[in-house]
Amino acid sequence: MSTATLETFVLPPELEATEPPEVTLGRRDAVRMLVSIGEEAPRPSIARDFAQWLDEGDLVVVNTSATIPAAIDATTADGRAVVVHLSTELPTALHLIEIRRPNPDGTTAPDPDEFGGTTLQLAGGGAVRVLGRMPQSVRLWVATLSLPVPLLDHLDRWGRPIRYRYVPDSWPLHAYTNAFAREPGSAEMPSAGRVLTPDVVTDLVAHGIAVSPIVLHTGVASLEAHEMPYPERYRVSAPTARLVNATRESGGRVVAVGTTVVRALETVADDDGVVHPGSGWTELVVTPERGVRVVDGLLTGWHEPEASHLRMLEAVAGRRALELAYRTAIDAGYRWHEFGDVHLILPARS
Predict the structure, then answer these.
(1) b/e string for 288-327 if b means 16 or more Cβ within 10 A?
(2) What is the DSSP letter of 80?
(3) C-alpha pair distances (Å), 286 with each of 155, 168, 257
(4) Nearest one of 348, 344, 258 to 48, comparing CA atoms
(5) Residue 40's Cα: distance from chain center in Å?
(6) Is 45 part of a structural domain of the chain?
């Protein structure tokens, strides 16, 4: 990345994490963690030591949405096999879906065919009626579902976790589920929280660092370049809102675990940086121009070039710090994607 930018760098294939770290390293929290503090040179650490980089009185906010087995086999009217990724539940019983074609190795690829107005038959019975493309998207479709049983029951029987070509083997749902996940709803794992094992959470509490939940059900991550984030369902409770506000008033830092937490908290923050309880569907896009109002720090994974999440990270870290971190991560061989290493972004110490 020495001559590339955040938008144009090339991710070497050998830096893609292909299997869970508990298989390769023995523990989820054994992955590497690069720590960026302001514009200082990034420092190497491991996820197990997360608490050591925070201070008593800080607040860590996690997403307790649980991953669902959102990939399900389907058949077109002419008998062709496809795979449906159930991305996001929208208001009025609509769903955002992605339609993919299966590969011989068990992975999938985007299907470029036109599906508007068609009906797909789902494994186990039921159907998907494709209404049309989501506006401004080249990959997502708006659809209605007709199922013989409730959605989660159907997916528990017929669905499987979404995986992409960089993960050659299938893994059970618990490999895609965070230790503190409680409410099923995410099409893909809010993966930054994967490294927060019970040991890490215990360390946080022992260091006087509070942990509080939000819920944001994340959709599929496999968007085309330049597509903006779509609506996602969220909930920020009154206790979490009070704790965020109290932390800021007392001089503590609010550290989000994952971009989903940033999106949820910033959605319910007013212009003065006060967080209010709220729920619904958020369309907020956090950019450097908009900035962040309540989030001071962020624990996140490593994002691909042209990913819209990089704009959010730039809003938290600043452009120079982010480019320095990505250059360091590539040169040092950090691993990308949901089974990969993590990046802790913290503000400069005053």
Answers:
(1) beeebbbbbbbbbbbbebebbbbbbbbbbbbeebbbbbbb
(2) -
(3) 32, 33, 15
(4) 344
(5) 26
(6) yes
Q: What is the pLDDT of residues 76-105, one digit of tens each?
A: 999 999 999 999 998 888 999 999 999 887
Q: Per-residue pLDDT tens for 181-207? A: 999 999 999 999 999 999 999 999 999
What tokens appear for 159 in the block?
């669905």
Compute the distance between CA of residue 305 and CA of residue 312 in angstroms, rounded to an integer: 13
Q: How many domains does the chain have?
A: 2
Which residues are within 8 A (CB) of 61 and not within 5 positions of it... i.e. 6 or more apart? Answer: 211, 212, 213, 214, 240, 244, 254, 255, 256, 257, 261, 265
Query: What does the radius of gyration of the chain's CA atoms come to, in whole angstroms?
Result: 20
Contact 191, 167 (CB under 8 A): no
Q: Is residue 212 domain-shared with residue 304, that is, in the same domain?
A: yes
Q: Are 187 and 200 in contact (CB under 8 A)?
A: no
Cβ contact 33:196 at 8 Å = no
Please give the distance of CA 61 from its chain centroid, rounded to a whole number: 14
> Which residue from 26, 69, 36 is spatially nearest to 334, judged by alpha carbons?
36
Q: Give the DSSP letter string of 2-29.
A: -S--TTT----GGGB--S-HHHHTSSGG
Amino acid at 233: R
Q: Are residues 63 and 129 in the same domain?
A: no
Residue among 317, 272, 261, 248 nearest 57 (CA): 248
What pTM was computed for the model? 0.94
State the amino acid at position 328 in one-letter form: T
Range of the domain at 149: 71-158
Indicate whether 319 and 274 sit together in one domain: yes
104 and 234 fall within a common domain: no
Is the dihedral angle over the CA atoms 230, 185, 176, 49 positive or is it negative? positive
